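WARN no homologs supplied; continuing
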Amino acid sequence: MSHFSTLRTKISDAVILKQSLRDLGIAVQENADVRGYNGQRVRADLVVTLEGDYDLGWSRNSDGSFDLIADLWGVAKKHNQTELINAINQKYAVNKTLAEVRRPGLSNANVKLVLQ
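OK structure emitted
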């Protein structure tokens, strides 16, 4: 029986996700295994190796978004998983917004940022 959970995210840009993880001081690997309970592993497109025996991974869906894959029980043994995932999502949102604002043609545009 697998202990892995799959959570739908709004993350769709792998480059910005990798940048966001690096900004947070988290090393990221591509096409690696996410470690879970009792040595279980599942392949993911992007993986961060956490302290301890458990990791976080992201796998791309057919619609271009990423699912977060992790053994959340195991991650919670050494990390505050809510704070960790929230920090990653917040950094991604900031970096994605900044990337969009810096796109060519937006130099004189008004930008409205809505936080939910």
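The chain has a mean pLDDT of 90.
OK
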